[in-house]
Amino acid sequence: MQTPPLHPTAIPLQSFVEDHASFRSDFVFSLKISEKLNEKNFLVWRQQVEPYINANNLDDFLVAPLIPPRFLTAQDRAAGKLNPEFRQWRLKDQMLLSWLQTTLSGEILARVVGSSHAYELWNKLVSYFHKQMCAKARQLRVELRSTLLDNRTVQEYLLRIRNLIDNLASIGDPIPVNQHLDVILEGLPQEFGPVISVVESKFDTIDIDEVESLLIAHETRLDKFKKKTLDDAASLNLTHATASNTQSQPQPDTSIPSSSVNTTSGPDLSNFSSHFGSFRGRGGRGRGGRFANVQCQV
Fold first, then answer.
1. What 8-state DSSP symbol labels residue 293?
2. Do 214 and 199 contact (CB within 8 A), yes or no?
């Protein structure tokens, strides 16, 4: 009995099985992601998975994939005979989808429920985190513009700005160096005017590290001047206080105290004078009266 001819597009079963086995032995995902994707590490996660996907030539499965037709002819559709190329594509796609799901945390995996293919899962992730990063970038930029030196030290102020800029870079929104310098200078008070003038005079040639060194040195100089001013003021106040205390102390009285004169036991001069006068008026005649030789002593 003669074997019927094969369909022009059909592949011998043995050949297909061999190719399929060969493909499965080569296409094995052995990379283990150290950090699974969560709400805060999308860029870190993406930096881990993308190189591995590209190394396996699977990037076309994520962005604008070319999906072979499921059936070649109407007869194949009626018979449920899949296109061999579609089988190969579906095999790679489903293995990639399974591997990607193992790199997701539980909270993110719940957001991609219903993804049947790798490109659907990838599109959902990119769309969701793009919106999240745009909102986060706006928030960080507002914080960056409102950052002032205030009660911080220069070191704390510069570190705060650098952290905000690093966070913007981590979500794909980096800040150029000239804008970094603008943010630093705009948040400084008037006391840093000399440093601002120096930086602006050579804005094109100065770098961030040099600016930070100038600001820290200027802060040290200002602290030294403030300490000297406070010491001088304290010394002046002490001098004034000592002089005031000296002037307010009572001085010793060299006059005879009033308490030393006994006004109660001693003679009353006014009465004595009046009596003396009356005596002169009654008994004395001119200067040679009866009591002319009488002398009064107190």
1. T
2. yes
Residues in the chain: 298
| Long-range contact set of residues 268-275: C-beta below 8 Å, sequence gap at least 24 | 269/298, 272/296
Residue 291 CA to residue 298 CA, distance in Å, equals 18
Which DSSP letter does residue 34 get? S
pLDDT tier, 151 (very low <50, low <70, confident <90, very high otherwise): confident
Q: Could you give the count of Cα atoms lying within 13 Å of 78 in the half-sphere of its Cβ?
A: 3
Q: Which run of H or of E encompasses 124?
A: helix 118-145
293: tokens are 């030789």
Alpha carbons within 13 angstroms on the beta-carbon side of residue 102 total: 12
| pTM score, whole prediction | 0.56
Tell me the two tokens of residue 44.
């870190």
Q: Tens digit of pLDDT for each residue in 102-143?
A: 999 999 999 999 999 999 999 999 999 999 989 999 999 999
Mean pLDDT of the chain: 76
Q: Indicate the pLDDT class of residue 285, thresholds 50, 70 and 90.
A: very low
Query: What are the distances in angstroms from CA 51 to CA 28, 54, 55?
Result: 15, 5, 6
Q: Pick the closest to residue 277 from 291, 297, 298 (CA basis).
A: 291
- Using a 10 angstrom Cβ sphere, with 0-12 exposed, 13-18 middle and 19 or more buried, the burial of residue 100 is buried
| Tokens standing for residue 124 | 């959902």
Q: DSSP of 60-90, one letter per residue?
A: GGTSS--PPPS-SSHHHHHHT---HHHHHHH
